[in-house]
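Hello Y.,

Per our agreement to keep a running log of every chain we model this quarter, I'm adding this entry. I've kept the format consistent with earlier entries: sequence first, then predicted structure.
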Amino acid sequence: MEGVLQAGDAKDWVYKGEGAANLILSYTGLGKVLRIKKILKDKSQPAPSCMVFSSYEQLLWGHIPELLDSVKQDCLAQAYAVHVMSKHLGANHVDSGVRVGVSRDFLELVEKNVLNSRPAWRVNASSIDNTADAALLIADHSLFSGNPRGSSCIAVEIKAKCGLLPSSEYISKENSIKKQVT
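Predicted structure for the entry above:
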């Protein structure tokens, strides 16, 4: 990782959106987004964590040392994109991003700056993990170049999870699609 985003850099990042685990910030004028890890505010809820692979995950991914190492570095998603998804979809179709350093001051100021842009229920549920030392910088794929008159464009985000088909006898007939589609 080269460079670290500091408090002075926070003014250039604006709220783009968020999911359950990450907050997405857009860089003004650059066409990049920053994916910052969030933490749950409700301590009674189990925090999603993956500090070590389970024995099943080791069987699946153990042949890729970079994935096993990345779990300890909190960059599993990027390693998965690089070492698994790029191999299946082609590197030119997968944006694995670049890890950039972030200071605690940057994270605290960004959280303060975007507070009014976030939905209240998201603010109540989670906050930026200001103990993180890095975030993921990727291209903003919601921006399109050129002037596509008269044509349509569809963007698809593939959120690959495990990718296995279950074969459990406990899957009811109403949910049998689970045996056919991941």
